[in-house]
Design goal:
The complex is a heterodimer of chains A (191) and B (333). Chain A is 12% helix and 66% strand. Chain A contains two helices and ten strands, in the order ααββββββββββ. In chain B, strands 1, 2, 3, 4, 5, 6, 7, 8 and 9 form a nine-stranded mixed β-sheet that branches. Classes of the chains: A mainly beta (191), B alpha/beta (333).
């Protein structure tokens, strides 16, 4: 599964890099807060590549890396590829729907982790890393804040749910809230 | 934009956890694919450590500990809150969920407490299904020797014999309230049962649901704990606890038929049984059967019956409960 996700990332980033001018015209970069269950603090970084745009609907391919810290329990890194539909909601506000696949790297790091060896001795580790498959779906709202010929800035709120598998041999549901800004350095159509 | 930044700042500032999660020390036990959290709170310097073995299957000792019911006990010894494999805040991907596997986890925990924390005396306190895990552990003499004191709270070593008296109580209670028509489905379901009683975890849950509805679990709803917004949003509990609570019991092999009473006659460890007189999940009579089977003799074996408690005397009569446990320490060598 990890190989598939890494391939997805490579393909989409490769697509993004074809043609320097087009890359800057079609790409938006996002940075924001990603709170697991809203309140477990984390951050997210990503890029959104516009695949096509019709009159009302735009389709983006979104690559995202995020991190959050679950107090006294674990840290989690995630790497996602989302497909994001965007359509006008009201004036400068756009609504979004997205879904995608991701990979979670969960690090249990609160205190030592003790296990027993075959000879009955205690073995001590400072952390354990677990690799998890994770689909996600979400909705979002985006408001265009600044638009100039050189760049545009939007702010977004993107609540989402995602699943962690295998967690005790089953899918575990999570909720998260992403909030932040997207920046497009060269507006579409501008030279 | 300003609004977004204000909201973001407020969330970051509010991102604090319940104070009882912040207290004490955490570590994890890893065994057979399961990664189980352990929280230690209280007086570690006393050298006495009491492991609270939660019920369920699928509950959480760490979540229960946030109620702060054992604060008084924590002044006299260290309380160890361990979430069993597949339960509570436990993570990983264990392939085996059995009483025996949990007893093995418990043995590793005891080894950690002894070797890493200098524990001189270790007590087990098993509540409800936790009594099954502790009985499974204590039924092996080499393991029982590591334990200085054993407490069972509304629990039994033989669940297979536990259910019929409770079913009889449900039927009698329905007849007493004169609501047989309203409970006709339940009565018909009980009548269809053969001698094996329950075939699945869901059937046990259905039975326990009836007991709860008839008031055989909590004396009053004010003692009923529930996952709060604070636990979900401001603690490590999140949605994992609810997930595990729902799934764990279904996976623990035939837990409702567990019986470890055979090995208990050789146990000589000081023993305290605390029962809620109004509990029909594990009726007092079932608990007393186990009490009589344990080999501990004379004054080293105590039973305290709490007349105003149901299945959770440690929620319902907290002060009295804590006093009994602290008094029990005088028996622990």
């Amino acid at each position: 599964m990890r190989v598939v996700l890494i391939l997805c990332l490579c393909v989409s980033l490769g697509y993004s890099a074809t043609g320097k001018k087009r890359f800057w015209r079609d790409s938006q970069f996002m940075v924001g807060y990603l709170g697991e269950m809203l309140t477990h603090p984390g951050f997210q970084l990503g890029a959104e590549q516009q695949v096509f745009k019709k009159k009302k609907v735009a389709l983006y391919l979104q690559e995202e890396c995020s991190y959050y810290r679950h107090k006294r329990n674990h840290d989690m890194w995630s790497f996602y590829t989302h497909t994001l539909f965007q359509f006008p909601a009201h004036r400068r506000c756009k609504a979004e729907l997205f879904g995608g696949m991701g990979y979670l790297m969960k690090v249990i790091n609160s205190g030592n982790i003790y296990s027993r060896t075959e000879t009955g001795l205690l073995k001590v580790d400072s952390h354990v890393i677990m690799h998890r498959f994770s689909p996600a779906v979400g909705v979002g709202f985006r408001i265009d804040v600044v638009e100039t010929e050189l760049f545009s800035l939007s702010s977004f709120v993107r609540p989402r749910i995602f699943w962690e598998y295998p967690y005790n041999d089953a899918f575990l549901l999570h909720g998260a809230m992403g909030m932040g800004i997207t920046i497009q350095f060269l507006k579409r159509g501008a030279q | 934009m300003k609004l977004l930044l204000t909201l973001l700042t407020a969330i970051l500032l509010a991102g604090c956890t319940h104070e009882l999660f912040e207290e004490g020390e955490y570590f994890h036990i890893s065994n057979g694919g399961a990664i189980m959290p352990v929280q230690i709170r209280g007086e570690k310097e006393s050298g006495t450590f009491c492991i609270y073995i939660h019920g369920g299957p699928g509950s959480s000792a760490i979540a229960e500990a946030t109620l702060g019911n054992f604060r008084e006990i924590e002044k006299f010894m260290a309380m160890v809150y361990w979430d069993q494999r597949g339960a509570g805040l436990s993570d990983g991907n264990p392939k085996v969920l059995t009483n025996e596997a949990s007893a093995e986890d418990l043995d590793i925990l005891i080894q950690v407490l002894t070797e890493q924390y200098g524990a001189q005396k270790i007590l087990l306190m098993g509540h409800s299904y936790g009594a099954i895990i502790s009985s499974c552990y204590m039924s092996k003499s080499d393991q029982a020797r590591k334990i200085s004191g054993w407490i069972i709270v509304n629990g039994t070593a033989d669940l297979s014999a536990n259910w019929q008296p409770a079913i009889d109580w449900v039927k009698a209670e329905i007849a007493r309230t004169g609501k047989s028509a309203q409970w006709s489905d339940a009565l018909a379901w009980y009548d269809r049962m053969d001698s094996t009683l329950f075939q699945s975890h869901d059937e046990v849950q259905r039975h326990l649901g009836y007991i709860d509805s008839l008031g055989g679990k909590f004396v009053s709803d004010e003692f009923r704990p529930s996952a709060t917004g604070e636990q979900v949003f401001f603690s490590p509990i999140g949605l994992g606890l609810m997930h595990n609570e729902k799934k764990c019991g279904k996976k623990v092999t035939q837990w409702w038929n567990s019986n470890y009473s055979e090995g208990l006659s050789v146990v000589t460890t000081p023993f305290l049984l605390i029962t809620g007189k109004r509990d029909w999940i594990i009726p007092e009579a079932s608990c007393l059967t186990t009490f009589n089977q344990i080999g501990t003799q004379g004054a080293l074996k105590r039973h305290r019956s709490f007349s105003n408690s149901g299945h959770h005397p440690h929620y319902e009569e907290v002060d009295k409960f804590n006093r009994e446990v602290i008094d029990f320490l005088e028996l622990v060598q």
